[in-house]
Design goal:
There is one protein chain. The protein is 38% helix and 17% strand. The protein is of the alpha/beta class. The chain has a two-stranded parallel sheet. A two-stranded parallel sheet has the order 3-4. Helix 3 (73-82) links the parallel strand 3 (62-65) and strand 4 (88-91). The longest helix has 15 residues, at 41-55.
Length: 112
């Protein structure tokens, strides 16, 4: 098994449930490097890094999502995380095509 050779596994796979399946069978942590059309965890980490780099902080930042954020895997992964940092989130949905799914917005409200 791969966990005999690694302390942590970064998994990128085209199946939606690949990371969940791997986590059930692995003895080491699994990092979601992107799975199917779901979130892109590495992309979220990269965006968090950039927010910190450019603003000098994450806590209390005001983050706007523009463009087609509702289908962005990075944005879908980042949105729930931002709640933990007390970030104010703005989504440009003026023409009603940028809306995040209700489940994702509920995750954000649960985390903060």
């Amino acid at each position: 098994m791969t966990s005999d050779y690694a302390d942590i596994i970064l998994l990128r796979h085209n199946k939606e449930d690949a990371t969940e399946i791997a986590a059930r069978h692995s003895r080491v942590p699994i990092i979601n490097g992107g799975n199917g059309s779901k979130e892109h965890a590495l992309g979220a980490g990269f965006m968090l890094f950039n927010i910190k780099h450019y603003l000098g902080r994450i806590e209390g930042a005001k983050v706007g999502f523009y463009g087609n954020a509702a289908v962005s895997r990075c944005a879908k992964a980042l949105l729930p995380i931002l709640g933990y940092y007390g970030v104010d989130v703005f989504v440009d949905d003026l023409i009603r095509i940028f809306r995040f799914r209700r489940k994702l917005l509920m995750q954000l409200s649960i985390t903060g």
